[in-house]
Each structure stands twice: as C-alpha cells, then as structure tokens.
C-alpha cells in the first residue's frame, strides 16, 4: 500500500465550471505541490445556458443533454489543473441542477435544491471519511450569489463536515474524521473594485464590450473578513485553460472572461478565502498582506504528524 499524500484538500462545488472560476489556481498549485486534491461537484449543471450557437441543441429546453456534455468539459478542465480525483455527489446525475432561484426547476424531482439535507450530506461523509482531508473549501451561506445549488452545496458541505466527525453517525461509511480547517470562497471588495477600475482600460483590447458590475462577482465581502490569500500567478495559464475547457459556459480572453450574460469579469490570479473553522496561522506570510495566511494548510503540519502517529 502506498502512503496517502500528507496534504489533502477537498472542494465542494455546485456545477462543473465553479471550481475553475473560483479555485482554479489554488487547485493547480496544490496538485503541483503533490497534495491530494479532491473535487466533489453536486450536479451536472444541466440547466446552464449554452454559449456556442453550434451546441445550443444541448440545452435543457431542447435535447436536455447538457449534463453529460459538461462531464466531459469538467474532465478536460481537471486535466489542465492536474487534478485526478473528481467525483459527483452520489454519482453522476444523482442530483440535478435546480436552475435559478424562483424557477419551477427548483422543485422538480431530483433537483439538488429539493434534496433532503442529511441524505445528500451522507454521500459527502463517505468521501470525507475515505479521503480524510485536513482542509475543506466551499461557498459562504449565500452560495456566493444566491443560486439555489450553491446555497445547497454550502449546506451539504458544512453538514457533512459535522456528521463525518461524529463517530456514531453511519459507521458503515467509515471511521470518523474531523476536518481541521474549513474555508469559504470570498473576494475582498477593495480588490474587486480596483480590478473593475482597471477593466475600463482592458475592455477596448478585448472581444467583450460590456463590463459586469462589482456585485456580479460571487463572494464579494469586506476586506477584514479575508483570512487567507493564495497567490496563483504561476498557475494563471492553467486556470485560464481550465475555464476555457468549460466552453459551453465561459468565454475566456485573458485577463477577462464572460459567462452566458456576456458581461466581462476579471480573471482573478490571486484567490481569497475566509477561514470559518480552525485556527489561522499567518506566521511566515510575506508581502503587503502579511496578516493573512498564504497557505491553506498553514499551522497543520504538526497536527497532521501527531494524528498520523496516533493512528499507527
Ligand atoms: Zn454554479
């Protein structure tokens, strides 16, 4: 038996493409450093709008074959990021994309939004107890921007983290495991505002015409709440390539991209997080944001060693 990599990172996302937009550089960085990176995607993104005219027939209101197509896009994206462990919650197609808030798709059979929380969380508990990650990344309670599947992904991830650590819960799903650090995806408001000011100069040199609004960026929050920033600049090309692999959903023209609404957004080379469980460990951090951590695993090395020794 081979030893599992010491650093294990789990990400929980709603649809294929969210991982690359939010965490592409972080995933590529940790994969390149030899950490085990596990992505769990909760739906196939069946209700997404399709950008390329030639693929419009895949859409939910036509052939309804976008889900399987996006499995292929996600696979290609993971190849770009160097991530080999990607799974769908409960298996591919177990939960369906719920569409935007307030639509009838929210309540159709199998919609993720309608899923029983503990039942959905149990699928994730099984993954947590198998992979035994020290770090979990998911959305804030609003899902970043209020999409039902993003809100539900947040709830399932937080619930599963609690249940996985509970020895009495579903012993058939493996030995209890407590995740040491939990992060929510965030972007500091000052950074977003600065990037949008800069975009006025970038737009004329891009294929895009209309800027999005600062409020269109998911997870924007007060700077003080940001505990951690991951400098993904060496992995920007990988992040852009992964986003490009989701071609039905994203058009990339670095340093900008658009979703199906055709509104230009900046592609963030630094990715930001709010630690909500565990201790921050900013020692050793450098640069202008020295009070922030620059490693998701900061402060965990000793804890991990102790846990490994105890387990023997
Ligand atoms: Zn999404």
UniProtKB/TrEMBL annotation:
So what does this thing catalyse?
Answer: 1D-myo-inositol 2-acetamido-2-deoxy-alpha-D-glucopyranoside + H2O = 1D-myo-inositol 2-amino-2-deoxy-alpha-D-glucopyranoside + acetate
Tell me the GO molecular function terms.
N-acetylglucosaminylinositol deacetylase activity
- Where do the annotations place Zn(2+) binding? 15, 18, 150
- Which lineage? Bacteria, Bacillati, Actinomycetota, Actinomycetes, Kitasatosporales
EC main class here is hydrolase
Task: Give the cofactor note text.
Answer: Binds 1 zinc ion per subunit.
Biological function: Catalyzes the deacetylation of 1D-myo-inositol 2-acetamido-2-deoxy-alpha-D-glucopyranoside (GlcNAc-Ins) in the mycothiol biosynthesis pathway.
Name the chain's protein: 1D-myo-inositol 2-acetamido-2-deoxy-alpha-D-glucopyranoside deacetylase
InterPro entries per the UniProt record, alphabetical = GlcNAc_PI_deacetylase-related, LmbE-like_dom_sf, Mycothiol_biosynthesis_MshB
């Amino acid at each position: 038996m081979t030893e599992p990599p010491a650093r294990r990172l789990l990400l929980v996302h709603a649809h294929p493409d969210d991982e690359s937009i939010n965490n592409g550089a972080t995933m590529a960085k940790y994969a390149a450093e030899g950490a085990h990176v596990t992505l769990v995607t909760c739906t196939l993104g069946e209700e997404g709008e399709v950008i390329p005219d030639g693929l419009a027939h895949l859409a939910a209101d036509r052939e309804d074959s976008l889900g399987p197509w996006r499995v292929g896009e996600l696979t290609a994206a993971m190849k770009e990021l160097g991530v080999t462990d990607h799974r769908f919650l409960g298996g591919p197609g177990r939960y369906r994309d719920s569409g935007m808030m307030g639509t009838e798709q929210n309540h159709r059979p199998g919609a993720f939004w309608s899923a029983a929380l503990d039942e959905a969380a149990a699928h994730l508990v099984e993954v947590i107890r198998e992979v035994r990650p020290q770090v979990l990344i998911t959305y804030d309670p609003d899902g970043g921007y209020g999409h039902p599947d993003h809100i539900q992904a947040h709830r399932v991830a937080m619930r599963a983290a609690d249940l996985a650590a509970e020895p009495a819960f579903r012993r058939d799903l493996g030995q209890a495991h407590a995740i040491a650090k939990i992060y929510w995806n965030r972007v500091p408001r000052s950074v977003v505002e600065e990037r949008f000011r800069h975009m006025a100069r970038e737009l004329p040199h891009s294929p895009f015409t209309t800027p999005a609004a600062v409020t269109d960026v998911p997870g924007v929050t007060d700077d003080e709440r940001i505990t951690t920033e991951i400098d993904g600049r060496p992995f920007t090309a990988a992040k852009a390539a992964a986003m490009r692999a989701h071609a039905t959903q994203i058009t990339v023209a670095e340093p900008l991209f658009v979703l199906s609404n055709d509104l230009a957004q900046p592609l963030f080379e630094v990715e930001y997080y709010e630690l909500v469980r565990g201790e921050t460990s900013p020692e050793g951090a450098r640069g202008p944001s020295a009070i922030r951590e620059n490693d998701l695993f900061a402060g965990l090395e000793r804890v991990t060693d102790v846990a490994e020794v105890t387990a023997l």
